[in-house]
Design goal:
This protein is an alpha/beta fold. 46% of the residues lie in helices and 17% in strands. The structure holds iron/sulfur cluster. Iron/sulfur cluster (SF4) binds next to helix 5 and helix 10.
């Protein structure tokens, strides 16, 4: 059944000249029909250079918005309209404005996992792989960092600047705990434990490598290790197993697995319906907000 739908999607996207891109955390079936798979910023950057005007972004809303901010001339379609991000939605704009008022000397760094409105009131964006570089590049000593308190703790440990964190988190990564790491060490003593910096600080400190999803994709290739425990959303395991069939990957948390409900909302059928223009939502960002948010993203791209 899935094969039949996959073939129909592949046929239709060629006929209609659509591009399908999928985040690393999407279900395996959706990854299989994507033209590109990657993290949110990688995917958003690709869109500008492709010839297709119509893009189906299998991911969550802030990612599709980021793509629209960078490439306003493209039609960006989010196949499941209510696929949001709990961490992005945690940010209260009024609270950020208050933090900025209270800390007038600070600059504001917004993780790309934020809405267009939040990017628009920030000075610069960052990703989990360049957060430290972005913070260290700033010409101020105080930095408001939002929304992820765990990524903020990683940056704080590695910079001399004063980090003022927002109290947000990704519920998928924040659920990892030190017992998960201890269990994995006992069960897989010859495996490297890779953890995402959105995991709590004590889990980061007990793991072997702290890596963004992009970093996790590259790491097994250069490592002599054969086995890896993966501390991020479960979809990464599908991607890694496909990229490195000769290596072995285990989830850091086995029961229950670390799943992002919103990332798992998009099915093959949703992609098919979006291609037929029967469902999904085309993303629009108000021009005034888009231009300000673009400035924050461009400031980041200039230095990384
Ligand atoms: S994994 Fe976390 S940061 Fe990513 S979309 Fe889900 S809630 Fe948001």
């Amino acid at each position: 059944m899935n094969e039949k739908v996959k073939n129909e999607i592949i046929k239709l996207k060629k006929e209609k000249n659509f591009l399908i891109i999928a985040h690393n955390y999407q279900i395996g079936d959706v990854q299989d029909v994507a033209d590109f798979i990657g993290d949110s910023l990688e995917l958003s950057k690709i869109i500008k250079d492709v010839e297709q005007k119509n893009i189906i972004f299998a991911g969550v809303r802030f990612m599709a918005e980021t793509a629209k901010i960078l490439a306003p001339e493209k039609n960006i379609i989010l196949p499941v309209a209510d696929a949001g991000c709990e961490m992005a939605d945690m940010v209260d704009i009024q609270k950020v404005l208050k933090m900025q008022k209270k800390n007038p000397k600070a600059k504001t760094v917004a993780y790309v996992n934020t809405t267009a409105e939040v990017k628009a009131i920030s000075d610069i964006c960052c990703t989990s792989s360049n957060a430290l570089l972005v913070v260290n590049s700033l010409d101020v000593e105080e930095v408001i960092f939002l929304p992820d308190k765990n990524l903020a703790s990683y940056v704080k440990r590695n910079t001399d600047k004063k980090i003022i964190p927002y109290d947000g988190y990704c519920y998928v990564h924040n659920q990892f705990n030190i017992l998960d790491v201890k269990r994995a060490r006992e069960k897989y003593p010859d495996a490297k434990i890779l953890i995402h910096p959105e995991a709590p600080e004590d889990v980061q400190l007990l793991s072997d490598e702290i890596l963004s999803t992009g970093g996790m994709i590259k790491y097994p290739q250069k490592s002599d290790f054969f086995k890896f425990v993966i501390g991020t959303e479960d979809g990464m395991l599908y991607r890694l197993k496909k990229l490195y069939p000769e290596k072995i990957f285990y989830p850091l948390r086995e029961n229950p697995r670390a799943l992002c409900v919103n990332m798992k909302k998009t099915t093959l059928n949703d992609i098919l319906l979006a291609l037929r223009k029967e469902s999904g939502e085309e993303i629009f960002v108000e021009e005034n907000i888009r231009l300000k948010a673009l400035k924050s993203i461009e400031n980041m791209l200039e230095i990384s």
